[in-house]
Each structure stands twice: as C-alpha cells, then as structure tokens.
Specification:
By secondary structure, the chain is mainly beta. The chain is built from 1 helix and 12 strands, in the order ββββββββββββα.
C-alpha cells in the first residue's frame, strides 16, 4: 500500500452494468469499475479489486487496505489512515479534513475545488481512491 495523501488518479464504484466510468475534474475518463469489483485504468488494464467484505487488493491480489462499514479506512496492517463521515467529509487519521464527497457524486479537495466525479459510487470507495490508496 502506498499512502500518498490526495491522489488525483482514480476512484471507483459498483454498477449493475458491465462497468462504471470514472471521471477526473475535467470530465475525462480515468478508469472503470466492473460489476465484479475489478478496477481498470482508462486503457482497461486491471489495477486492483474491491471485495464485498471491504478488502482492497492491488493487481497482484495483495491486500492494501480495508473499508469498514462505519467509514473507517485502514491500511493493510489494520492501522487507521482516515475516515469518511456520513456527510461525505473525508478526514485523515488526525481528523484533519482532506476533502468532500458530495451527495451528487462531486469530489472536492479541502479547498472545495472539484477534483473528480463519482456519481452512483459509495462515498467510502471514492474517498479511498482520491485520498488514501494508489493501486499501481
């Protein structure tokens, strides 16, 4: 797991269709998530996986983190690296605000600038990609 602070690389979510498109702040496609939890880059190469139990894996299937049902984000050693509050506020382990995931799917940094879109995607999952983990 690479803890990188704010990552403007990818975010993901589930869809009943074959894949959900993920967009950057400029609305360009930066990735996809398939209905089976496979996370893909914009060129469709596999970057990682999300399992139903909240386990996050890289492309080699090594566990790099966990998403708990209460919004707590943990690294592979089960140390807390952040939180996603019910209102969409994303905090680091010291409870400093890193950004926001709005109800309409807009992702903002701590200065309220839009950095991406995660429409129809769980807030916790979007936060993992924007603020805590990098898959490649």
């Amino acid at each position: 797991m690479k803890k990188t602070g704010i990552i403007f690389a990818l975010l993901f979510g589930l869809s009943a269709v074959s894949a959900q498109t993920i967009e950057s702040g400029s609305r360009s496609t930066i990735g996809y998530i398939k209905s089976d939890g496979t996370i893909e880059s914009s060129s469709r190469s596999t970057l990682g996986y999300i399992k139903n139990d909240g386990t996050i894996e890289n492309k080699s299937r090594s566990t790099i983190g966990y998403i708990k049902s209460d919004g707590t984000i943990e690294n592979s050693s089960r140390s807390t690296v952040g939180y996603v509050k019910k209102d969409g506020t994303v905090e680091n382990s010291s409870r400093s605000t890193l950004g926001y995931i709005k109800n309409d799917g807009t992702v903002e940094n701590s200065h309220r600038s839009t950095i991406g879109y995660a429409r129809g995607i769980k807030k916790e999952w979007a936060a993992v990609f924007y603020f805590f983990f990098k898959f490649d």
